[in-house]
Amino acid sequence: MSIGLSDSEEQLRRAAAALARETIAPRAAEIDRSEDYPWDNVRALAQAGFMGMTIPRELGGAGRSFLEAALVIEEMAKVCTVTARIVVEANMGAISAIMHYGTEAQRRLAAELVLAGDKPAICITEPEAGSDATAMTTRADARAGGYVLNGRKHWITGAGVSRLHLIFARVFDAAGTEQGIGGFIALRDADAGLKMVRREPTMGLRGIPEGELEFDGLELDADRLLMPPGGLGRGFAELMNAYNSQRVGAGTVAMGVAAGATELATDYLRRREQFGRPIGEFQGLQWMLADMTTKVTAARTMLHAAARSHGPGGSAFPDPGLAAQAKLFASESAVAVVNDALQLHGAAGYSRDLPIERMARDVRMFTIGGGTAQVLRTLIAGQALGWKLPQRREGRVREAS
Ligand SMILES: Cc1cc2nc3c(=O)[nH]c(=O)nc-3n(C[C@H](O)[C@H](O)[C@H](O)COP(=O)(O)OP(=O)(O)OC[C@H]3O[C@@H](n4cnc5c(N)ncnc54)[C@H](O)[C@@H]3O)c2cc1C
Question: What pLDDT was estimated at residue 1?
Fold first, then answer.
């Protein structure tokens, strides 16, 4: 149950639930088995207006809010985690950064691609720069009229299927002086020098490739640099601000998987009989179900509050603290809820005949990707204390400005 939705939000949620039930759910097991990117689902999402729904109307989108996107994401996640993640990346993260910071030409390019079914890839993580993202070494050197990128990223969701890439890199001017971290828009196939070199053999979420990308003399015109309003000196902070929307999206996927698993477990408790009675009559299992339901409702409430919030200074993106808390709680509770749902199914939960084992593999990612649970705790504690908490040995704890 969602709290405080307007009529049009509820209508949207119902439309998403119908699409999820009728079209997306029947394909979910096969997507997991084949590990093929679900282009059919992408077409169905685009037709329903769920690809690029947060893109402003003047660019052809529906101008929907992050909360509205979250309603669609939850319904998809209940039945197919992969499809829900596509909705996240087609409405939050890289696409919202481009919509808010991009030039008119950049916004038009991105809108056209996403509305036609492209799920953008956001490229931050490197083999030696995971939680410590600002240790990235991918560089963009200024050349006449543009930049040349060299470096490597890994665990990039959609590598090999996404066309639009937002690549974070250290920017150097023509004299070789570092300017800060910037985001570059690159297009697979059109821009030579952007190569996928490896697909990760993942535990779950198998229908979206996670890949390693190499940028080998990737030449981009100057107008492919996404310039945040504070300039490159504040580039990383402002680009990561846009990422708060993606955090809400990722948390919503986790919560949606937990909600779907809870529905399956509830049905099973009613149907499965042992000792001559439905197992739902055993109080120990009722209390497990009560805790699962409570966690899902709490996570949803936090995520919706974060989705509706604005960051400091009238930022268009969700408040960083609320987004971090919501993603942390939603992801950790979802792992626990899905694990309990599997337990309630007994051996049937361990079988690939039912969706629960797939959900258990899929949901495990969400305490890792998009800021680990540990890194989010550091962020939340820093906010509570009003301190900057540098993690390097030489860093000093100081008051946040
Ligand atoms: C399925 C999936 C999809 C992803 N998609 C993308 C994507 O599209 N784009 C992208 O750029 N990246 C993506 N990532 C990468 C993800 O953002 C990183 O995995 C994450 O930031 C953590 O980095 P790491 O894996 O290198 O772990 P590490 O940083 O090496 O961390 C290892 C462990 O140490 C802990 N740790 C590290 N530093 C600290 C600290 N200071 N205090 C306490 N604990 C700490 C971590 O929490 C973790 O438990 C994806 C990852 C996964 C699994």
Answer: 57
Q: How far is CA 387 from CA 9, 275, 321, 371, in A?
A: 38, 57, 13, 19
Which domains does the chain show, CATH number per domain?
7-115 (1.10.540.10), 121-230 (2.40.110.10), 235-365 (1.20.140.10), 371-401 (no CATH)
Q: What ligand 1 atom has the least distance to the C-alpha of 131?
A: 29
**pLDDT tens sequence across 326-359:** 999 999 999 999 999 999 999 999 999 999 999 9
Query: What pLDDT score does 314 carry?
Result: 84
C-alpha to C-alpha distance for 106 and 103, rounded to whole angstroms = 5
CA of 2 to the centre of ligand 1 (A): 31
What atom of ligand 1 comes closest to residue 157's alpha carbon? 8
* Full-model pTM: 0.98
pLDDT in tens, 227-248: 988 999 998 999 999 999 999 9
- For the CA atoms of 237, 239, 243, 245, what is the dihedral angle to 10 degrees? 110
Q: Whose CA is nearest to atom 52 of ligand 1?
A: 369
Is there an atom of ligand 1 within 6 Å of 401 CB?
A: no
Residues 6+ apart with CB under 8 A from 315: 241
Nearest CA to ligand 1 atom 51: 369
CA 34 to chain centre: 22
From the CB of 156, is ligand 1 less than 6 Å away?
A: yes
Cα of 126 from ligand 1 centre, angstroms: 10
CA of 129 to the centre of ligand 1 (A): 9
Per-residue pLDDT of 258-317, as tens digits, reads 999 999 999 999 999 999 999 999 999 999 999 999 999 999 999 999 999 988 888 899
Distance 47 CA to ligand 1 centre (A): 34
pLDDT of amino acid 392:
94
- Helices 235-271/283-308 angle, 10° precision: 150
Atom of ligand 1 nearest to the CA of 372: 47
32 CA distance to ligand 1 middle (Å): 23
